[in-house]
Hints:
Blueprint lengths: L17 H7 L9 E3 L12 E4 L5 E5 L2 E5 L4 E3 L8 E7 L3 E6 L2 E7 L5 E5 L15 E4 L4 E4 L3 E6 L4 E6 L5 E7 L2 E6 L2 E6 L2 E7 L4 E7 L5 E6 L2 E6 L2 E4 L2 H7 L4 E6 L5 E5 L4 E4 L5 E5 L10 E6 L5 E5 L2 E5 L5 E4 L10 E7 L2 E6 L2 E6 L2 E4 L8 E6 L2 E6 L2 E6 L4 E6 L5 E4 L4 E6 L2 E8 L2 E6 L10 E3 L4 E6 L3 E7 L6 E8 L11 E5 L2 E6 L2 E5 L6 E3 L1 H7 L7 E5 L2 E5 L4 E5 L7 E2 L10 E9 L2 E6 L2 E5 L13 E8 L6 E4 L19 E2 L6 E7 L9 E7 L13 E4 L5 E10 L9 E7 L7 H95 L3 E5 L5 E4 L1 H7 L3 H8 L3 H4 L5 H11 L3 E8 L5 E12 L5 E10 L1 H24 L3 H7 L3 E6 ...
Parallel strand pairs: 59-64
Antiparallel strand pairs: 1-28, 2-3, 3-4, 4-5, 6-7, 7-8, 8-9, 10-11, 11-12, 12-13, 14-15, 15-16, 16-17, 18-19, 19-20, 20-21, 22-23, 23-24, 24-25, 26-27, 27-28, 29-56, 30-31, 31-32, 32-33, 34-35, 35-36, 36-37, 38-39, 39-40, 40-41, 42-43, 43-44, 44-45, 46-47, 47-48, 48-49, 50-51, 51-52, 52-53, ...
Helix pairs in contact: 9-11, 11-12
Amino acid sequence: MLLHSYRRNLVLCFLVFFVTLISAQERLTGLPFIENYEDELVDDLVAPGSVQGPNGYMFFSSSNGVLKFNGNTWEYARGTDTIGVTGICNYNNKAIYVAAKKGFGVLKSDSLGCLQYKSLNHIFQDTLPIENIVSIAAIDTAVIFVTQKELFFYYPEDVILRKLSYPNTRFKGLKTSNNRIFLEMNDLLVEMKSDTFDVLGEVKNSTLFSIHTDANNREVFVFYPFSMHQYADGKLQKWNDRIEEKIGNDVVLSTLRLKNDHYLFSTYSRGILEFDKNGDFLRKISTNEGLGSSIVVRIFEDKGGSVWANLAPGVCRIEIQSPFQYYDDRSGTNNSTFNWYRRYNDVDYFGLFDGVYERKEGRLYKIDKLEDLYTSPFVFGYSFLMNSNGGMIQYFPESNELKRISKLQAATIIPVSKDTLIIHSYNKFYRAYFNKGKFETEFISALSDSIKNYELFNNGSLIAFRNGKEIYRYYLSKNYLDIDSLISFKLPVEEGIESKASVIALNNSIKVSSIEGFYEQKSYDGSFQKNELLSEYCSLFERFVKIREYDSIYYLFDNKKIIAVSDKSGKDSVIQNRFRKINDQLMDATHYYGLDTILISSKDGFIVYNPGAVGGEQYGFNCYIDKVSISSKNLDSVIFAGARTGSMGSYIAEQVILPVIDYDHNSLKFYFTSNFYENRESIEFSSYLENYDADWSAWSGVGFREYTNFPEGDYILKVRSRNIYHTISSVDSYHFTILPPWYRTLWAYILYLITAGIFVFIIVKLNTRRLEKQKKALEKIGKQRTAEVVKQKEEIQEQANELEYKNVELQQQKEEILAQTEQLELANTELEKLSIVAQETDNSVIITDENGIIEWANAGFTKLYGYSIEEFKMKYGENLIAVSNFESFHSIFIECIDKKESITYESQMHTKDDAMIWTQTTLTPIFDIDGNLKKLIAVDSDITKVKHVQEEITNSINYARVIQDAILPSDKFIREVFPESFVFYKPKDIVSGDFYWLSRKENKIYIAVADCTGHGVPGAFMSMIGNTLLNDIVTKDEAMSPALVLEKLNKGVEYALNRNVEDVFERKQDGMDITVCCIDQMEKKLKIACANHFFYVKTDKGLEKHSGDIYSVGGMFGNRDISFSDMEFDLDQVHSIYMFSDGYIDQFGGLAGEKFMTARFESLLQANMHLNMDQQLKEIERSFVQWKGEEKQLDDVLLVGIQLNK
């Protein structure tokens, strides 16, 4: 199977039908990232109301109070838990007002910055009582709240309350939109203007649930039962029939028009429904898509474009407008990695690593007949041509028919004419076509088989990159079997490109990208020039860089990051930070889907990227000092709780109270937060304390900073935050003063003068305190004695309960014995029936009485031993126990009687002809009704031939063990290279599939630990192949990194196992998981690469776990041109390294018979890593033996520990 270049060629065929494709495509929506918040205050929360405060914090109103979320913690505003909250609103982004069952108030901070509810009822004595507030809302000049018969207008700027009473009126609800006031009044929908009401229409038997605006900023009224109306031409008219038909009879609880002019509807049973500005349905977001509940009480859009959903119960945040939407396990990808995309007959097809999928109604469904890895797809007529494990296949989507058309392995399929293709396979090029329905291929001998890094134009010309500096363009003849002409170009480089280069052909122009630079051909036959802007960003990649061009934007990427650069000059055209959000999910493939949408391969599917959408990096945000506490030994007190408001609740950005702190409390702890809610785990903080710090601190994810032992003085702490996009927030500050110590004050000197006078008083006071302590001690002793008596009483009661339990248990045992007696009687009856069969068998059968006296033997006894039963008794005696020559027979006999079950053992016996034979004996006791031994039956089988075969196999395996031990590094060599080290090596069988390898070359030391497929003899052969290849790679080639060693080892294993196998289905999926370490003593560097495994290093920070690449060496992916990555450490920073196979971790044992598991293994290393290596080995071996107990060893076990620095 040719996989080594499929990633590089994923988009080649797509260009042929790209123009017609885009015109027919709909936008690929995907699913948004959803964050369901987990907190004990949120788990049962049902919040009808939510707003974003002036400081960006989120507030949620429920019957339990007003819940605040600052990005880190959830807490209720003080005083809101007892007032029966009915609603909240944000007045002009200045203050949060709260409506309650019996009043009206505002959230304001106290002197310590704690947010609390302040009732405003005392200001409005003339208008009280205010009870049963139905709803609350705000316009530019006032906060409005309504009861069933009254309207209240509170004007915060003037602190004036205006009351309007309507005795014959019943108000059901209040909504505001565009600074307009709408009310439900006596089954009418009205708009209030200057204390008068304009009737918009009758809404009898309906309730106004929500108002949103359309694309023209006109109000749309949403009612229950569900209907949507708009006021036009003097009456309420239906707004959008398509949306109403799609939602049907579901209950719509709230609506929202997003910044991108999409409409959201939160429902009672189907989660959230999204429609575009024309009313076309886009997608549903419910529990299947990651929502915590399908009952969505309210939706709200924050300043950063995220949508907050109040669930029943719970709260979640949805990045519904993000440029990045996802196709993952929620969409049906089965967490499989995206490979390619094609569109056929208005149906989207996606190639994932575990098969081919088609998209239906926003989800992916795997095609039954295409459950494998298929690459290099191409639409040919009414079918797909693809490469598979067994060669090229042809798939007909309409009939779901699959045909294998060639055993040829195609790395690339390129159409060069209507009915002709060029195929690249095993470094060879073929012309392919259908002849009378049969797929034919012809080898293009004119093209060299050394062409590897290449691109094909669809006009039949081929571009090849050679020698790191030259580009060859081959023009093929009309029959595509010969070369008409050849043109070569040189890149403007002196020594050539040493890293991996990616060659692409765009618009009849050639472009070459590598980490050393980006070079492009400006005309059809022109020379190459270096693009300085793109070259600068190519250099940011580590080992290789691939490039794609979509809509005049170049996308540079590998499997770790993406950078987008517009085809213009100037760094303002570079998009780098927005992709930081997805860098940890990437695989190295992209596709242009069309309609400004790009598909990006990820580890569990693919990401839908819309370059035109507004990303989180474009929103400003703030950083806040959320809490300040004194952290002295004798005091842990909060002096600032984060809230800053005026006396009437208006938010104040600057600090109001400047605290003065005693010198005794001169240790402070500052807590930070940020109102940027995306990827909270990636938020970093930097702080600077004026008059104390020299500069801003380094960026850190730790959300607090502690200072101890401040000198007296005035200080200003400044803090800022940085989000995942590396956008930096505004700076928040906190002023405070530390007073001098008391002994430097005037009062201290006065105290010195009166100290002598109060000395005697202090002594008396201390003596009194001593006597009080003695009294308390005696009282404590009395309480202890009383507690002991109570405890003894409880112990006696427990003993009585235990005796009662044992009586019940004895009764149960009696019943079990009676049941066993019945079973024994039945077994004895069956045994009598089997006696006839025993007489005819070839095995020897002997029956004795309860004392072991032989009573009977069958004919098989004479056949086996040559003796008649009388001859045997005369020569050896008649007691079977006495005549048996098996040393352990007596103990087996006792065990058989005690356990009342059959026992099998093997022994040697001389026949009458003096021949030595091996027998397997099954000893079975027979008991009577009372459980007394009645008979003893011994059945002997001849196993002599089996024993001889086992002996020959064991001798062969033992010799294989000698060979395997010879190729492993000797203990002397290991100690010579690493004096402080250990090897815990415990094969499951005589030979092992795990091996370790060590080589020293000049100033570099290489060591590897490998776990080959299987164990025993198959694993041992694989380990010998791996050992030989490692020696060959490191000895013959110049010094190289561990990643390159793995790449060469991967190719070597593939060559060794599969080079003579033509059919891919016959290949063995053998391989190994391996860790390779290189210690560069000159450069003081440690490099480690892992294939499908992980390792631990011990540093000053403790024990650190590092995972390697996802591919193993050889096996299923052995034939792919995969790359491994190095992890580099400063040698001085690493104390020890631990490399191992999975045998230790997967071993069953312990009290519960479970696996040892990674967490327990990591704890074992942490608990013993302070010991020297010999002591660590003893503890590791002791732990393994103790854990395994009586369980069988399931796999080979190998663990290597090396101390590099103390």
